[in-house]
């Protein structure tokens, strides 16, 4: 076995849904590509021998007890060009927000210099928040969408990127729209090929994604053609589904069917499809998701502003739908998956308890809706990895070593670093970017906190 790097650290990850495992002084061996070849605990028979070997070969990276290593987070839904307006205009309804803020901003990405400046800053920011993998909507501009892919490749972030398609003249402004259905398809094909070329020299992986913005923005023929393209090449697909009252009813009015039914009929659902939000998914839609293996990108901060309701994570999880977490910059204001993980827990409790205190408690909320912190941790890591069909989110043989190093001494850990159960909870609830000291993607350090 050829081990090129050994990591010695206290680690913590969610090996099962709802369970967190904490291993003190784990010894992890990585191959040249940053894939985990073994993980040994101090009680394992070969531990001491391997540790000695690692030291002798001077290939050991050791972290002391003030550090805790968590798996890198996966942001399953983020609009890269919207980064400049993060935190802005969140009091507007979705339709107005798109028309007055988002479309004017995204149209500026025909400018290569502006695009590079924003995208460089965004990718740096995400890495500094522990996001090692991201599924991006870029803009409708093919060339600058490609420059986002190049920036991620260079900075070492694993990225899934789509050139946004939006060609419906009824629902998109004249100044920001694909020229025609045909050009949207050709540019998408071209974009995918270029990203695949880039991927040949990108260790951590960079992947093209078929990206119809959402059904309202696209014509029927475009949706159908994109579905065929995805199926022919087994491409990933991302879009929005049943996001809000307005969006959900728009699709009903146009087709007489639900978002999920229409996305399926266009060939856009499947094991490599990830749909954002889905708060209004009905039983038929949920069954379609489960049958096709489509994943949900749950964006709990964004949902508080635009979704008119709360996603029932617990219910959909029970129905067998895979769920990851997304920041939805800039429908959500925070680039941090930590913030979204916490919000996911909080809103699930509000959903369970209800909000109207004038009602008797048994009539106030929806029973069995809450998710625990451990479950939210799973959605932020393993759930995202399963959506992307990659071995991500765990410290385990054959998984990519994607990791964030938390400095526990920056958190209120009075009494030391002995209580494992309180340490991982504090780490998940209290970590902000300054507490993240370093980030690794596939064994390579891609961020070092200079503070
Ligand atoms: Zn979105």
UniProtKB/TrEMBL annotation:
<dbReference type="InterPro" id="IPR051607">
    <property type="entry name" value="Metallo-dep_hydrolases"/>
</dbReference>
<feature type="domain" description="Amidohydrolase-related">
    <location>
        <begin position="69"/>
        <end position="446"/>
    </location>
</feature>
<keyword id="KW-0378">Hydrolase</keyword>
<dbReference type="GO" id="GO:0008892">
    <property type="term" value="F:guanine deaminase activity"/>
</dbReference>
<keyword id="KW-0862">Zinc</keyword>
<dbReference type="InterPro" id="IPR006680">
    <property type="entry name" value="Amidohydro-rel"/>
</dbReference>
<dbReference type="InterPro" id="IPR011059">
    <property type="entry name" value="Metal-dep_hydrolase_composite"/>
</dbReference>
<dbReference type="Pfam" id="PF01979">
    <property type="entry name" value="Amidohydro_1"/>
</dbReference>
<dbReference type="GO" id="GO:0046098">
    <property type="term" value="P:guanine metabolic process"/>
</dbReference>
<keyword id="KW-0479">Metal-binding</keyword>
<dbReference type="GO" id="GO:0008270">
    <property type="term" value="F:zinc ion binding"/>
</dbReference>
<dbReference type="InterPro" id="IPR032466">
    <property type="entry name" value="Metal_Hydrolase"/>
</dbReference>
<dbReference type="GO" id="GO:0005829">
    <property type="term" value="C:cytosol"/>
</dbReference>
<protein>
    <submittedName>
        <fullName>Amidohydrolase family protein</fullName>
    </submittedName>
</protein>
